[in-house]
Write a structure and sequence with these properties.
The protein is mainly α. It has one domain. It is built from 9 helices and no strands. The longest helix is centred in the C-terminal third of the chain and has 31 residues. The termini are far apart. The C terminus is likely disordered.
């Protein structure tokens, strides 16, 4: 099995393919005509089914490597929680779920795809499931925000930031009790990642939190400008 080559041809092609899929699936719900509502529903439910199947497959695929226990069923990894939130947002169009999906899917999930924690390249099943799940979350974030039109409310970036910190605090307790490393709160990933340039433990955790704040704020800017323009026109 060939090792995964970061920023190699396969990696770049995968990211470009996901970007193209996100653009296409965001365009379909915005089409004018009688079929637009139907197209929106098909896209949403298809993505929800893909993510649900992908998460179940990833858990089943991990069985030969280690014994699956109750900690593996719970959404303790960031990717698992992001997938569940994406499915929730796709099926319900709930505002809070869509906001979480937007900020998580277009920040942490994108960074994870730029520096994936995988050992082998395609067609390794774990490489496929990694990009299917992470890519599915990012695509869903684009579709729900720019295709379906569930835009973040004022202050959404701050709410999501504090929800993210509360989630991380809960996971930190679980890590300490169960001697695990969910969210990489106790050690950095085995593969090269952005955390490598953020200093040693525990400083890289604070640096990652600061980066999340900056990214969430940047992702909010298009909607702040849009609302300001709308207010000015009134």
């Amino acid at each position: 099995m060939n090792p995964f080559e970061r920023f190699g041809l396969e990696h770049a092609a995968t990211l470009l393919l996901l970007a193209a899929i996100a653009a296409l699936l965001s365009w379909l719900p915005r089409r004018r005509g009688a079929g637009s509502a139907r197209a929106q529903g098909i896209v949403r439910f298809a993505l929800a089914a893909l993510l649900s199947f992908g998460l179940a497959f990833a858990l089943a695929d991990a069985l030969p490597l280690r014994r699956l226990d109750w900690l593996d069923i719970l959404p303790l990894h960031f990717c698992d929680m992001a997938v569940l939130i994406a499915v929730w947002a796709l099926l319900t169009r709930r505002q809070t779920a869509c906001e979480l999906l937007y900020f998580w899917g277009l920040s942490g999930t994108l960074i994870a795809m730029l520096t994936p924690d995988v050992d082998h390249g395609f067609p390794d099943s774990r490489c496929l499931s990694f990009f299917a799940l992470h890519g599915g979350v990012a695509v869903s974030a684009v579709v729900m925000t720019f295709g379906v039109g569930v835009r973040p409310r004022p202050g959404a970036h701050l709410r999501v930031f504090w929800i993210t910190n509360a989630y991380a605090a809960l996971i930190a307790v679980i890590d300490a009790v169960a001697n695990e490393n969910y969210l990489y709160l106790r050690a950095k990933p085995s593969q090269p990642s952005i955390l490598d340039v953020m200093g040693p433990w525990p400083w890289y955790i604070a640096a990652a939190d600061a980066l999340a704040f900056v990214l969430f704020r940047a992702l909010m800017i298009p909607f702040m400008n849009h609302r300001a323009a709308a207010t000015h026109q009134k």
